[in-house]
Design brief:
- With 199 residues, the protein is mainly beta.
- It has a single domain, classed as Lipoprotein localisation LolA/LolB/LppX (outer membrane lipoprotein receptor (LolB), chain A).
- It is 14% helix and 43% strand.
- A hairpin with a 4-residue loop joins strand 4 and strand 5.
């Protein structure tokens, strides 16, 4: 069930940013996609979204624990902090502790945006691999065997800027494109053993 929607212009753009960066639990399929077992990390960084002529950017802090996620996004000076919490079956959108929306991830995305993105696979992509439980095509690896490109769920994914993190060698930049949409995630920090906090 979709809860009471009170999306003003700024809030709606923040929700869009959060959904892309997570951001986690649903995709273009009509049923929930499996999340990678054992995916467990805390990351922080920036992301950008472009859909046709419309573009957004924000900072994020994302905690993934097995199949659940807790993501916060915010604008300059910590403004408009919005939080997404849930798993592959349900997503809650909160701001200032107030529940703004709740329902299946795909329902929430379609109700607010009119379309959805394959956020279920982003945890794997951020760690530098395709989602291991879903098919992928056209893989390209560098001389050290790291993935630099592949196609999954019709998204063309490019990984670059590999650096050593608490999770091994991971890409600092993930760019995914599909049907005029472009999502860029720049990971600044892996926050292993750190308390999850926003800005």
């Amino acid at each position: 069930m979709i809860a009471d929607w009170r999306f003003y212009g700024v809030l709606k753009s923040l929700i869009l940013k959060a959904i892309f960066a997570a951001l986690l639990a649903s995709g273009c399929a009509s049923k929930p996609l499996p999340l990678n077992p054992g995916v467990d990390f805390r990351v922080a960084g920036k992301f950008g979204v472009r859909d046709g002529e419309t573009g957004y950017s924000a900072r994020f802090a994302w905690q993934q624990s097995l199949d659940t996620y807790d993501i916060e996004v915010w604008g300059p000076l910590g403004q408009g902090r919005t939080r997404l919490q849930g798993d592959s079956l349900s997503m809650s959108v909160l701001q200032g502790g107030e529940l703004l929306a709740q329902g299946s991830p795909e329902e929430v995305m379609h109700a607010s945006l009119g379309w959805s993105v394959p956020v279920a696979v982003l945890p794997a992509w951020i760690r530098g691999t395709p989602h291991r439980e879903l098919s992928f095509a056209d893989p390209v690896r560098d001389t050290e065997g790291r993935y630099t490109e592949f196609v999954q769920l019709d998204w063309q994914v490019k990984l670059s800027g590999y650096e050593r993190s608490t999770d091994g060698l991971t890409p600092g930049r993930v760019v995914a494109e599909n049907d005029g949409k472009r999502v860029t995630v720049v990971v600044r920090d892996y926050l292993e053993n750190a308390a999850f906090e926003g800005p």
